[in-house]
Design a protein that fits this description.
With about 400 residues, the chain is of the alpha/beta class. It has 13 helices and seven strands.
Length: about 400
């Protein structure tokens, strides 16, 4: 039903019933939570609910032909929101392609993610402004990018100086499936040998598309970096407080010159790998129900109610989610298609004769049609991805 190593101890600060409770060996993480205020807790829940509502709306929009693909992250909200807020104000984030929750903790506009999956822009947001770098569609590459960036911080002397205005750390996200790729192992090697200010954050959602984690490894994933010199720790990925505390502690350590760490967030992908996937073909309903009982939003709601947060707050969050979904839907349907010729832009940094030849051919073809855009054969209503 779950990963064979699911009973291995992991950092957990919230029980399934929403009780705050920390084992003695996790006291340093619990202390970080005690520094938070109610406003922080409400922010965590609000963003978890917000990103789930957005995620479900984006899936519906893809089903209606408004995007070519969508990559849902339902079930992983605690891992993403918690870790996202554990990242410092100067730190840099290198995501894979599922980190919508991390994105909103650092100011990325949700519509820019929709535009990327709709194919109307060249990445979606400015990574220099958000410190949240572009999604990595080729999995594993983001870990190398992050490690190279972290090595550069060492070379520039921006680690361990004690100056919070200049010291930086780096975090990169990937899934359990990516740990089987050589890029991740190479990243561990360079991170360890260069003592980079870096956290590797693995969201172990139990499935690499249709391959269960038990077929990918014989040891727990948080131990994957030990042979290279990168220590690891496992955290309950459905516990937003634990994810926040563990990420903050190890990002602080990295920034202070203590080197890299691998965090494995033990979580679950509730839905499909992408909207082109049918998970019912490879996993049974009993497994899904088991993890639904560990839903990160339900667990954190129980915690908040125990803290005295009333129904009015949850009603406000639900109403805000509905408003967000309506705005995303309206903006998506109103979105203009890119000019067809834009497919030739930014292919190469310098002009290329073959690209120029292809662009000239398209322009000539359009002129032969009297200025009308070419249509898809057999369909006189297609306008290249827009609404009909």
């Amino acid at each position: 039903m779950t990963s064979p190593d699911s009973e291995i101890p992991m950092v957990q600060l919230l029980t399934l019933e929403g009780e705050f409770s920390a084992a003695r060996e996790y006291a340093e993480y619990a202390e970080l939570i005690r520094e938070l205020r109610e406003a922080d807790f409400l922010k965590f829940y609000r963003d978890m609910a917000r990103i789930r509502r957005f995620d479900n709306e984006a899936t519906a929009l893809q089903r209606q032909g408004q995007m070519g693909l969508w990559v849902p992250a339902v079930g992983q909200e605690a891992a993403q929101i918690g870790s996202g807020y554990g990242v410092g104000p100067n730190d840099h984030i290198f995501p894979s392609y599922r980190e919508h929750g991390v994105a909103i903790t650092h100011g990325v506009d949700l519509m820019s993610i929709v535009k990327m999956y709709r194919g109307v822009n060249h990445g979606g947001w400015n990574p220099h402004e958000t410190r949240f770098h572009l999604y990595a569609i080729v999995l594993g590459t983001q870990a190398l990018h992050a490690t190279g960036y972290a090595m550069g911080l060492n070379f520039e002397g921006r680690v361990g100086t004690g100056n919070p205005e200049s010291d930086l750390a780096v975090i990169t996200y990937f899934g359990d499936g990516a740990t089987a790729e050589g890029d991740i192992s190479e990243s561990f090697l360079f991170a360890a040998t260069h003592n980079t200010p870096q956290v590797f954050f693995c969201q172990n959602n139990q499935w690499a598309i249709s391959s269960p984690v038990g077929t990918q490894t014989k040891v727990p994933l948080f131990k994957r970096g030990e042979g290279f010199g990168v220590p690891g720790i496992r955290v309950d990925g459905n516990d937003v407080l634990a994810c926040y505390a563990v990420t903050k502690k190890h990002m602080d350590d990295a920034r202070n010159g203590k080197g890299p760490t691998l965090i494995e967030a033990f979580t679950y992908r509730m839905g499909a790998h992408t909207t082109s996937d049918d998970p019912s073909k490879y996993r049974d309903s009993a497994e899904v129900e088991y993890w639904k009982a560990r839903d990160p939003l339900i667990r954190f709601e129980k915690f908040l109610r125990k803290q005295g947060v009333g129904q009015e707050f949850f009603d406000e969050v639900e109403a805000a989610g509905d408003q967000l979904a309506a705005e995303v839907r309206e903006a998506t349907f109103a979105m203009a298609d890119p000019e067809l010729e834009s497919m030739f832009d930014h292919v190469y940094s310098d002009p290329h004769p073959l690209v120029e030849e292809q662009k000239a051919w398209l322009q000539g073809y359009e002129e032969s049609l009297g200025g009308h855009k070419p249509e898809t054969p057999g369909d006189d209503s297609v306008n290249y991805g827009g609404t009909r």
